[in-house]
Batch of 2 targets.
Target 1
Amino acid sequence: MSMNTTATTRPLEPEKRAIIIGASSGIGAALAKEWARRGYIVAALAPDEAGLEKVAAEGNGRIHTYLHDVTNYDEIPALCQQIIHDIGGVDIVAYIAGIQPVVALDEYNFEKDAAMIRVNFVGAVAWLNQAAVRFERAQSGQIVAVSSIAGDRGRVGAPVYNASKAGLSTYLEALRNRLTRQGVTVTTVKFGFVDTALLENAAKTFWVISPEKAAQEIDTAVRKKKQTVYAPARWGLVSLIIRHIPSFIFRRMSF
Amino acid sequence: MINENIDRTVSILPDERLERVPAWGGASYSLSHVYRPTTIEQLQAVLKLARKNGRSIGLRGGGNSYGDAAMNAENILLDMRRMNRILAWEPENGRITVEPGVTISQLWQYILEDGWWPPVVTGTMMTTVGGCAGMNVHGKNAYQAGPIGDHILAFDMLLANGDIITCSRDENSDIFHAAIGGMGILGIFTAITMQMKRVYSGLLDVETETRPNLAAMFSYFEENLENSDYIVGWMDAFAKGDALGRGDVHKASYLPPGADPAPSQTMRLENQHLPSTMFGIVPKSIIWLGMRPFMNNPGTWLINNAKYHAGRLFGPKRSRQPHAAFHFLLDYVPDWKKAYGAGGLIQYQPFIPKETAQDAFREILQLCQTRRLPNYLTVFKRHRPDDFLLTHALDGYSMAMDFRITKRNRERIVNLAREMDEIVLQANGRFYFAKDSVLRRETAVAYLGQSVIDQFRALKQRLDPDNLLQTNLWRRVFG
C-alpha cells in the first residue's frame, strides 16, 4: 500500500514530488540531491544500483530509488504507476538519462548509434508519454528534460548523438504545444559542457560546469516555469552563431 | 533503500479511469482511478480488482466534503452516485430504505407529497445518503434532531471480504455506532433504512432578526431552543469590540396540523422549487461572478456591514417559506465557491460545550482578526450529544468558518488553524471530518481520546484486516 506522503498528511502544504529518470550519477544525481534538499520527495531511477544507493544516502530519506534501465520500455507503464502510487502522486517528471559513447570521425557503428537513440530519445518518449497522460488529466504538472546544444546542428564528430538530442528537443517542443493549453509546463534545458561521464570522451572543452551547477540550472528553470533555456545562458549566443553558420562552411569545419 | 520488490508483472489500472478529484472547497485535489458501480456485484468486482492490484479503495458520494474525506490519491475511488435506487417506501409510517447513492434531493422529492420530510438535511441537497451516514451529518435542527445517525434504523454493509452484514441498534450495534460517522472506512453501505419526519405543510414558519453581538447571539439560541425546530446564525467575522459576533439569526418551525389550509398544495414539488433567477432577472448560474469582486477583506467587510445594518433597519421579518427554500440556501447560488477564486476555500468548524463556547468563540474570532485572516462566512449552530463512536457533536455550539485559500496565505492559514486547535482543545471541543482539511493526528487523539481510537481501530482490524478501505482523510488523521 502507498506510503503516507505529505500530499495526504498536509493537503494545504504538500511537498512536491518528482520522478528523476537517470539519477545515479552526474546531473541526475545532483538534481535528486538538490530537490531532496529543497524538501521534495524524489523517486530516483537508474540501472546502476551502487550509484543509486550513494545518491539515496545523501537524500535525508527523501530519495526513493528504483532500479530501471530505460530501454526496458515494456515495464515503464507499470513501473510509472507503481512509483506514483508509492510517492502518492507526482508534480514533476525529469528525464535526465543520456549516453554518448566515443565515436571516431570515420566510424559508423550501428550498435553505438542505436544505443544512443534508445536511451537519449526513445526512453524519453516512453517516460514522458506516461507523464503527459497524467498531467493532462490533472490539468497540472511539469515535465523537464535535458537536451543539448549538440542537438542544434549535425556535426562531423557526433552524428547520432546530435540527432538523438535534436529529436528530443523537437519532441519536447511538440509536447509543450500540446500540453500548455492543459496547464502543464514542458521545459527543455540545453547544456553546453557539463563535467560528467559523457565529457570524458570530448576532445576540446571550455565553459565546463559542475553537475551541481547544472542541477541548479534545471531547478531554476523548473521553478520559473521556463520553456527552453540554454545553461549557462551564454551557450544561447553560441547556439545562435552555430545555427547560422552556412552549410558550405559547416561542411568544411572539423568539429 | 533500493526498491527491489516491485512486481512488474502486476496488471496496471487503466489510464482512462484516471480522474482529477477535487476537494469540494477546491483547495486541493488528487488523481484517482474512479469506478461508478450500479450493483453489489460490481462493488464486489472492484474489491477484487483492488486486491489484485495492491490498491486501496476510497468511497465518494456527492463529493461535498470540504476537504479530503472523499479522496483517495493514486488509488481506486468508488463514486457511489449511480447506486441511487429507492428500495422501499412505507408512506403510512415514514420508513424508507435507499441505496447509498440516493441524494437528499431525490429523497425529499420522493416523500414530501406523502407528508414526510427527511429529519436531517444538509445545506445542499446534492449530498448522498451514504455520504451523510458516513460523515454523520447534521442540519440546522441538530439541537432537536441530532445527527442523521439518530434517524437511521438499520443498514446493510458490504465488507472488504465481500460479505454483507446487517447492522442496527440491536444487531452488530458496535459496528452500527462506529460505521455511522466512520468516514467510509469500515465497509460500504449498500442499503440504509431511515425514519422520516411527519410534516403537515410544505411550508415552515421562518423568523429572521439581527443580534448586536456574540452574547446576544448566544442568548437568542438559549431562549428559542424550546420553541423552534431550526435555528441558524450568520455572523460578521469582521465586527470588533462590542459588536464582535454580531449577525443575523434565522429560526424556523414546522406548521402544526391544521395551520396550513391546503397542505397538499404547498407540498407539491412545483411549490417547493427554488426560483431560477435572483431579483427576477439575474440567472442563478452567474451570481457567483457578481460575488467575486467582494471575496477579499474590504469587500466582505462591506457586504457584512450592509447586510447587518439593512437587517437592523428593516427589523425582524416573519414569513412562510417552502422547506426547500429554507434548507438549501447553498444550492440557491450554484458554484458560489468559485467566487473564492482559483485557490478555493477550506472550512474550519469547531464544536464547543455550551459552558465554554462563548469565551472560546470570542477568542477565536479575535485571533483571526489579529492574524488578519478573518473568515468570510461564519455559521453558528446548536447541537446535542449522541452515542456514535467518532461523533463531532456535544451539548453546545459549533461555528463553521470559511477561509479563502490563496497561494500566499496557505502557511498562515495552517498556522492559524493550529492556534485555533489549542483554543478548541482547552475548551473541551471537538471537530468534524466532513469539513476538515487541517486536523492533525495529535489533535484527533486529544479530543477523541486514545481509547475511542483504539476501539475504532480494533473494529477496522476485524472488518478490514488488509486495510482495503482508505481515504486521504483516514491516512492523514489515523494512518
Note: The two ends of chain A are 53 Å apart (CA to CA).
Target 2
Amino acid sequence: MAKVVVVTSGKGGVGKTTSTAALGAALAQIGQNVVIVDFDVGLRNLDLVMGAERRVVYDFINVTQGVAKLSQALIRDKRLDKLALLPASQTRDKDALTEDGVLSVITALRKMFDWVICDSPAGIERGATLAMRFADEAIVVTNPEVSSVRDSDRIIGILDAKTVRAERGERVGKHLLITRYDQVRAARGEMLTIDDVLEILSTPLLGIVPESEQVLRASNLGSPVTLSNPGSGPARAYFDAARRLMGEDIEMTIPTEKQSLLGKLFGRRAA
Amino acid sequence: MTSVVQTAQSTRFVCRSYMAVVLVPEPPIVEWVAELEQKIKDAGHFLAASPVVLDLSAVKLSKSAITHLVAELNHRGVRVMGLENTDPAATGEGLPPLVRSSRGVTTNLGAPETPVSQPRPRPATLLLDKPIRSGQSIFFPDGDVTVLGSVSSGAEIVAGGSIHIYGALRGRAMAGSSGNAQARIFCSKIEAELLAIDGYYMTADSLDQGLRDRAVQAWLEGNELKITALE
C-alpha cells in the first residue's frame, strides 16, 4: 500500500526541497520504490537539486491538463533506478493546479510506487494546501529558531483541518524533521534547543539533521547528500529518518562529521 | 450577534451578544418578499420592533441585489442590522455589516407565535483535547474553555466565561468576552502574548517577569487585571 507523504514547513528556506531529495533518495537506496513530486509550480527547484534539470520535457501541469501522459513526465533517476521525479512547471503559477488534477495524478502514482513524496512550496496558500491535500503523512521541516517553529505550528494546524484525511475524521501522521541544527550554537544558547522545539510543537521527532556544508555542496552538485556523501553527518541523519519513516525503531542521535563523536547519543526517541 | 465598541480613552474592547430575528430569503425572491409582506400584515409587530439579520445562505445575490432587497425590506418596516452567510465581496458601503452567529438559528415564518427561537440548552464548557496551533482562533461566547494541551504563539482563545489551560499559554487568552468581570484565566505555564478579562488587557511586556513560565491565574479587581502564581 503506497504512502503519500508531504514535506512541508510554512516558512521558506528551511530545507524542504533538500530534505525531499535526500529522504527520497535514502528510501530508494534502502530498496523502496519512490517518486518525488515538485509542487512548487512557478519556482521549480527539485529538478536542480536532483540534477535532472536538463531532462525535463513534460511536467506536472502538462499531465493534469492531459497534454502529456504521466509516464512521459516522470524522470527516472540515472543513479537510482527505484527513484523517479515528477517536475513542476516553471512557466505557470500555482493557480494552474486544480484539486481534481492533483487527485488524479496522486491516485495514479499510488499504483506505481511505494512512496509518493510531495515537496510543498512555502506559504499556506493554494500550492501548499494542495500539496498536503491527499497526504497520509506529513514531514514538518523546522529550523531551531522561533519564526520557523511558529510557522510549523501553523502548518500543523492546517494539516489537521484542510487535508482529506482530517475532513474524514482520520489522522494525518505527523513527523518533525529538525534541519540546520548547529550543536555549537545550541550549546551557546543561540538557538532553540531540541527540547524547546519539541515542547512547542508537541509532534514526534523524525530526525535531527546537522548544519553542514555537505548539504549545500550536494545541492549545487545536483545530487542528494545521501548519494554524494553517504557517510557524512547529514546523510546518516537522513538515512535514519528514512528508516524511522518505514517504522523502524532507531535511537535518536545527531550524526556529526567525525566518527569519534558518533557516540553522542541524544537520550530521546521518536515517540 | 456581537458588537465591538471601542472608546477612545481606554481602548477597551467590549463584546456583547444580542438577540435578533433571522430571516432566510429563498428564491424566488419576489415571491418571498410578497409572502413576508403578508406575514407582516398578519403579525408585523415583532418584526417592526426587532433587529433583523438576513441569512443569505439560500440565495446567491450580487451587491446591487442585496442593496435592493434591504431597501425593499426597509420600505416594509423591516430594519436589517446585519447580513449573514454571503460573500464578503457582495457587502460593503451602504449595507449592514456581515455578522457570524455561533449556531444556526432560523425563524419559521409559518409559526409567527414563536418569532425568536428559544435558546437551546448548550454545554457551558468547551473542552479541547488537542494543542491550539498558531493561527487558530477559538471563539466560545457561551461559557468556559478548557484546553488540555498548550496554546501556541499566534493562537487565540476568546471565551464568554473563564479559560483553563493545562499546558503552556503562549498565545492570547481573552476571558469574560461577553461582559463577565468574574471570569478568570488559569494556565499551568505562562508565556502569554496577551491576557484580557472583560475587555481589560495585559500584554507580555507588562507581565511580571518573576511569573514567567509559572502556573498562574488572572482575574479582574475593579479595573485592574491581577495575576498571581498558583501554588
Note: The two ends of chain B are 39 Å apart (CA to CA).
